[in-house]
Amino acid sequence: MVTFRTADTRPILSRGPAAGLRFFIYAMLCITLMWLDHRHNYLDQIRHATSLVTYPVQVAVSSPANLWSWLQQTFTTRATLRERNDTLLEELRATNLRLMRFEALEQENLRLREMRAATTGVAEQVMVAEIMRVDLDPFRQRALINKGTHDGVFKSQPLLDAKGIFGQVTRAGAFSSEVILISDTEHAIPVQINRNGLRTIAVGTGDPNRLSLPFLPTNADIQTGDLLVTSGLGGVFPPGYPVGTVTQVNTAAVQTMAEISAKPAAALDRDREVLLIWVKQAAEQKDTAPATDPGTETHEPGNSVPADPAPQGEPPA
Amino acid sequence: MSRNTLRRLPMIVSIVPALILQIVPLPDWADMARPDFLIITVLFWSMMAPRVGGLALAFVCGLLLDLFQGLVLGQHALAACLPAYLAMRLHLRLRLFPVLHQALMVFLLLALYQFVLFWIDGITGHPVSHWARWLPPFTGALLWPVWIGLLGHAYQRT
Q: Helix H segments across chain A?
């Protein structure tokens, strides 16, 4: 075996208890840190400051991958560019067509809301953030984005991609923020079935292509292909944004709860750019809380499972 | 003082690539099995130069891991201190073991590290019970002969 020269010059014998004591001190220090951080969130300021140190390292680590994609983009052929341009034009045309209808509908919606003397609360501001190519814990669905409090990002701010809800900010640093995806096992998002307004909660499974809806009874009115949109309850996500489509409904008669899976609308595992949005929170809350309309209350009594403690009767979006 | 800094130089220099390897983006399958580069480096230094780096090194590296990828500050630090302490206590014996035997011991220490992480995850309410969570100790033990080759080489030259 190779022998190594050590930098040890002091005698060996005098070190036994000191090492044990030092270990004890360090362990106590760690436990205190964890306690302060987890129970009291005292260390948020410190974390915010240290993100200034970690950010350059993260930028340095993600730069080769960024360079590679930049090179790829720079040297794409004319044919691929034209092809992409054509598909984009096609998409734009289709979107414009739908937008025309949407504007009319929005006006109508505004008028209706005014009649009910409710605030609209959809004044939104959007900012594009890029997902940094740094690996966090592989067993959690988390990501790091390159915008922080410096750009106005705040904790539990919702994120979207082009197709639907992406996640929310868990920790906002100065120039970068940590994001939890809707597919994380610790994440749950209040949703509503677009077809009939049935409300429930979509829980992440740890798989970026599957959400689970564990809180619906077997006789709930839900089918494969149903679009799930955010319900706006909970106050984090604005109402009416697509979350996913139902892919599987398993209603075994012996169980009280149906096993329902949905596929997230956002491309959670492929996105490079996401949208941060700012919503006027106060207006939203006022809008949802006191409203009661019997229209959505025609479901089974089992609908009010513990997962849905918020006031019943939010108007369907 | 300057002598001390000089002694610590290879240690500090070796931590930087280990940290980068720890957070560099990899495909999903490789990400799950990614060895704990930083912890292996810490174990190497606690075995070969327990007086110079020791627990302070383990603590600092653990905190770095917490800052870069942890949920609770102090989790990786505690998990790193325990195997580093054991490696320090046993360093005279461990240094004499043949490399494969050493790799086995490193496997046990890394499993202990992973277990402490798992345990704290459970206490703080973010449990991860995926089986692949126990892959890094295996890949870490496999990496050990290569890693001590690299680090030992760098260390000898200084």
A: 16-35, 44-74, 78-115, 281-288
